Amino acid sequence: MAFRRHAALLAAALIVLLAPASAAAACRGARATTRTATTGTLVHATLCILNAKRAGHDLRPLVLNAKLGTAARRHSHAMVRERFFSHTSPNGDTFIDRIRAAGYLEGARSWTAGENIAYGSGSRATPRSIGRAWMNSPGHRANILSRSFRSIGIGIESGTPVGIAGATYTTDFGRRD
Fold this sequence. Notes:
The chain is α/β, with parallel strands linked by helices. The protein has helices at residues 39-55, 66-82, 95-101, 127-135, 138-144; strands at residues 5-8, 63-64, 111-120, 151-158, 167-176.
């Protein structure tokens, strides 16, 4: 088939309320929360943490992609606003629908994509804690360590789908050919 399209929707929902406390991190802002740092700082800390994990497995670093970032931000915002935690929105929109709507798939001959979501409160809402929880989950770890992915969008929203203080994270991974 001329167009190879598949989505790595390794999407087991991950709630990070009970993850172990994190050790000091080398990435600036890794232990910050939405109350102590800007969203930009948290995004860059999350990217740093994920790329450090990739480097430890001899994988090239992921690069921020604006269109994937738009899809990720919109999804984190929707999960908090509409109080749901899923890769599928209450209106039925899937992860692929969201990255398509953000323009990521336009003009691609082939592509691969994946998504991780998580939320946490208190010290469990930091980039370090979220990254650790994803690495301890086989499906999420597979997305982070996939050789297929080259780009990432990161969306972090203050608040959680269950209405408690914290943060909700979405990472959308992709590669277009």
